[in-house]
Structure formats: structure tokens, C-alpha cells
Amino acid sequence: MSQARLTFDAAIQDAEELLWHFDRSNTKPPPPNAEVLKRAGIIMAFTAWETYVEDRVREALAARLGSEGEGPSARFVKRRLDEELKKFNNPNTEKTRKLFQEFLEIDVTASWNWNQYDFTKVKTTLDTLIAKRGEAVHRSSPKRGGPPAPHLITRDELKKAINFLKSLVDATEKAL
Does residue 28 or residue 170 have the better pLDDT? Predict the structure, then answer.
């Protein structure tokens, strides 16, 4: 098991704990501020995914470079990766595929399938959830009169997103 996987497992617990707190505060009717826990949960879940991708490509590259890891060519490649990771955010399917392809010559997305998820469904799900994460980060629910606006993410969507990311990490680990 990679160190990146261990870090992901610890980080995804933040999203699970936020979901737990949401469940504990979800009364009938739910308090108006309970929705923030789900938004924070999706943000934390995808922060765990983004960190996993970054750490995993670094880890695999270091293993690939091996004893040559301190030579001039290896230092160049590591600097290039550092530069690329500074610009790397919102790791959707294409960005993740490109990163692993460029630095490891591996298409990790080719292994993204499990149970009822084939590559097409994995891609659609990941890219849709990444977009929701972006909305959660950049758009808060404005307080206004009248009926409450629908929540950005439901409790079940957050639970499914957490489980989806765990499975996605499993599939990525198998690919490497």
C-alpha cells in the first residue's frame, strides 16, 4: 500500500466526520446551517483526492527514478513535476490521466472500473462531482426570504461521493 493511500485514508475521514456531524444535527426541520456541513464534506473529500493524486504521482516517480533520483536528469524531472503540481487543481479525469501519462507513461484511467462502474460512468461521475466541489468552494448559499433554496449536495450524494472516491483510489492503486 502506498504512502499516498495511507494519507488519503486519513484525509477522507474528515469528510466522513462532517457527514456524521450533519447526521447528528439533521432534525425535522433541519437547522438552516446544517447544509454547510455537506458542502464542507464535499470540499474535504475532493481535497483528499487531489492530495492523493499529487502524492501518488510523486511517490511512483521517485520509485521509478530509484538510485538515479539525485542525478541531473532526475532533478530536472522532479522540478518539472513540482511546476506542474503548482498548477494542478480540480483533478478531473483528463487532468489526472495527463499527469500520470506525462510523468509515468501510465494511463491510470484505463483501470478505472469496478462493480457497476465502467470507465465512462467513472469519468462522468468524477467530472460531475469535481464541478460540484467547485460550486461548493466558490458559491455559498445566500440567505434570503421565502422558501429555502435546494441544497447544492444532498446527504446521499455526499455519502456516494466519499465511497466513489475510495473506490477510485483503489482502482488507481491497482493501476500502479
Answer: 170
Nearest to 42 by CA among 117, 120, 138: 138
Q: Which 8-state DSSP code applies to residue 148? A: P
Q: Which residue has the cell 532533478?
A: 75
pTM: 0.90
Let me know: does 52 contact 5? Beta carbons within 8 Å: yes
Output the pLDDT for position 148: 54
150-164 pLDDT, tens per residue? 677 888 999 999 999
Spans of all domains in the chain: 3-175
Q: Which residues of 63-74 are buried (b: 16+ CB within 10 A; e: fewer)?
A: eebeeeeeeeeb
Please state, in angstroms and rounded to a whole number, the distance separating the CA atoms of residues 76 and 70.
Answer: 10
Which three cell numbers, joined as nine digits, stand for 10?
486519513
Cβ-contact 93, 109 below 8 angstroms: yes
* Beta carbons of 31 and 25 less than 8 angstroms apart: yes
> What's the CA dihedral at 151, 156, 158, 163 to 10 degrees?
-170
